[in-house]
């Protein structure tokens, strides 16, 4: 049973699995997410207004591309910081974690 106020994703995070991001990185990621959120709201609005299917599909494609770009930026930052630091510290488990994550992303 889920704890009130906690999503499944929140519970899956281990206490030491945190990432402090630079102000620049955080700003970039949040701006990207805000744009994606706006695109999704726009798609919903298009459906509510009975927009033509192809127009909706074009917007879905744009939102999907934006989410893909967000994923690439986040993954790149993760490899350049978290993975590199852990490997330097002798924590090879992070490489296996990365390989599993890449497998999920490439489905």
Quick rundown:
75% of the residues lie in helices and 0% in strands.
Characterise the protein shown here.
- The protein is mostly helical.
- The chain has one domain: Metal-sensitive repressor, helix protomer (Methane Monooxygenase Hydroxylase, Chain G, domain 1), CATH 1.20.58.
- Helix 3 packs antiparallel against helix 4.
- The chain starts with 7 loop residues before the first helix and ends with a helix.
- The N terminus is likely disordered.
| CATH architectural name | Up-down Bundle
Q: What string gives the helices and strands in order?
A: HHHH
Number of separate helices:
4
| CATH-assigned homologous superfamily | Metal-sensitive repressor, helix protomer
Sequence stretches where pLDDT stays below 50 over 5 or more residues: 1-8
Structural class: mainly alpha
How many whole angstroms does the radius of gyration measure?
18 Å
Per the CATH scheme, the topology name is Methane Monooxygenase Hydroxylase, Chain G, domain 1
Strand tally: 0
**Please, what is the average pLDDT?**
88
Helix content: over 70%
The N- and C-terminal alpha carbons lie at a distance of 29 Å
Binned strand content:
under 5%
Highest CATH level, the class: Mainly Alpha
Q: What would you call the shape?
A: elongated
What's the structural domain tally? 1
């Amino acid at each position: 049973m889920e704890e009130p106020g906690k999503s499944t994703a929140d519970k899956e995070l281990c206490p030491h699995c945190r990432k402090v991001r630079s102000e620049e990185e955080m700003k970039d990621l949040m701006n990207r997410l805000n744009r994606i959120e706006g695109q999704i709201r726009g798609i919903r609005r298009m459906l509510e207004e009975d927009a033509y299917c192809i127009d909706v599909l074009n917007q879905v494609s744009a939102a999907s591309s934006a989410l893909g770009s967000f994923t690439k930026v986040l993954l790149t930052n993760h490899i350049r910081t978290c993975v590199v630091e852990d490997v330097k510290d002798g924590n090879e488990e992070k490489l296996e974690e990365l390989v599993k994550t890449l497998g999920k992303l490439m489905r």
